[in-house]
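Run log, item B.
One chain of 305 residues. Sequence copied directly from the ordering sheet:
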Amino acid sequence: MSMKIYISKVNESWVVDRFRKEWYKYNSDISTKFIKRSSNLWIIAPWLWEKIPIKFLEEKNVVCTIHHIDFEKFDKKEEENFYKLEKFVDKFHAISNKTFDQLNKLTDKEIHTIPFWINQNIWFSIDDKSSLRDKFGFSQNDFLVGSFQRDTEGYDLKSPKLIKGPDIFLDIIKKMNENKENLIVVLTGKRRQYLIDNFEKFGIKYKYFEMKNFKSVNQLYNILDLYIVSSRIEGGPQAIVECGLTKTPILSTDVGIASNFLDPKSIYSVDNFFNAETNVDYAYKKSKEITIPNGMNKFKEMFRA
């Protein structure tokens, strides 16, 4: 039987849904959307394994992606669930070196560290940034700082999702706002209420584009003067390579894939944010290395091995 890869479904409007769709589009010759016809089963998010019939987990070559592990929440139940999954897994896939280090503490199984690819047909630099600013209602003198990922823990829209570091982001913005009268924060995505409430409280100017299509989000990247990743724990985030391809200046905490794609000077700690330096060319060059189809090649090698 020739190699046929089946990817488990997420259907949560999460970036992994896009990865699944793109994989099938560009690798139809070695993939199948029918689990019965597959030789390799790719569990692209670990909690999906319980939806898969045991017989397929036992019959197939199983690869499971681990995005990140929050050991502060890794209680006895989480541990039990992990080891129930692990007995069916032949190989683990870690998104970053940091995830590898976390995972390596829990298993002796083979681990492949591969960042997800980025689709250059979605994320790209646009030259006419002045017109884009006009389109979204910004002036040419505005200093625009972006944050495009959620910041609340759950549906209460109040509790900050601390692993994403919205409190860190808020502290940075409060300090920036003291010296930049033209500062405006650009927000997209769901569950941004923690930051919005605090911006209202502290009189910080912002503009919120709740849910935009890829074309609009790409345009929003292109008008930014700075994008800030403030997370404490991450698998990616993909915003790092999205900023890379769109040539958006970015500073990030040392999480996930940051050290793989950003100049070391662009990675900050809470105490030295204002000493960090953006390096657009460095991030662009590194992000170009994982565009489609090249960014999928190491995944193919992992499945063929």
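Observations after the first pass:
- The chain has two domains: 5-117+291-304, 129-288.
- The longest strand covers residues 61-66.
Flagged for discussion on Thursday.
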